Amino acid sequence: MQAYCVKCREKRDMSSPRDEQTKNGKPIIKGTCGVCNTGLNIIGKTIAQMG
Ligand SMILES: [Zn+2]
Q: Ligand 1 being an ion, which residues bring their Cβ within 5 A of it?
């Protein structure tokens, strides 16, 4: 799955994505940029929703 990387300033494939929850109880997918290893987040989604 892809997420926008602020460091690369491009959409990048997310490495090691995992489902977590924010403090507000919202779903969030956390992973790292496959290119620069910066943390990437997709707020409001689960891995299942992303297919
Ligand atoms: Zn990156």
A: 5, 7-8, 12, 33, 35-36, 38
- Say how far apart CA 48 and CA 44 lie, in whole Å: 12
Measured at the CA of 7, the angle between CA 45 and CA 13, to 5 degrees, comes to: 45
- Sign of dihedral through CA atoms 31, 14, 17, 3? positive
Tell me, in angstroms, the distance from the centre of ligand 1 to residue 22's CA. 22
Q: How many A from CA of 7 to the centre of ligand 1?
A: 5
Q: Over the stretch 5-47, which tens digit does the pLDDT of each residue have? A: 999 999 999 999 999 999 999 999 999 999 999 999 999 999 9
